[in-house]
Write a structure and sequence with these properties.
Helix content: under 10%
Order of helices and strands: HEEEEEEEEEEEEE
Radius of gyration: 15 Å
Structural class: mainly beta
Number of helices: 1
Strand order of the largest sheet: 1-2-11-12-13-4-9-6-7
Number of strands: 13
């Protein structure tokens, strides 16, 4: 099994090529001036709890709750969130920083280590993310979600 952690260390966190795919640890989704971003969970096939972390320079409102600043990004867990979650961007937000995250049962939010990697696919109004969590395999189906600019 490939060691994506080692490969990302060697690339100093830059994207890497693996079996014809570009793999990333994190992504930056341009908002293109959108005020509403829709998160849609498409698939989850993992033994660990899976989620998405979204961070921005500015404010996001989700279900009436306001999150402000980079230190107050949001985590959305696939097992407790609805299939679609709307994120209202407040102010002039240029991009969202996107990570896949997981909890392997220890109550800790994990990301960026062991087998973690994402394949990012461009869509007309956003991107699809096919993610590997920290379990060392290369199926990229631990969580699949998309982020789309809808308003």
């Amino acid at each position: 099994m490939p060691s994506f952690g080692t490969m990302f260390l060697e690339s100093k966190g830059k994207p890497i090529q693996y079996q014809g795919n570009m793999l990333v640890l994190t992504d930056r989704l341009p908002t293109h001036g959108a005020r509403l971003i829709r998160l849609t969970f498409e698939q989850c096939n993992a033994e660990w709890r899976q989620g998405v972390s979204l961070i921005c320079d500015g404010q996001m409102r989700v279900n009436g709750r306001l999150f402000e600043g980079r230190e107050n990004g949001i985590g959305v867990w696939q097992d407790t969130a609805p299939t679609t979650v709307d994120l209202e961007l407040v102010g002039s937000i240029q991009e969202l920083e996107v990570h896949n995250v997981w909890d392997c049962g220890d109550g800790t939010i994990h990301y960026w280590h062991n087998g973690a990697a994402m394949i990012v696919e461009e869509l007309p109004n956003g991107r699809r993310y096919r993610c590997n969590d920290g379990f060392p395999d290369d199926d990229f189906d631990d969580i699949v979600f998309r982020l789309e600019r809808v308003g």
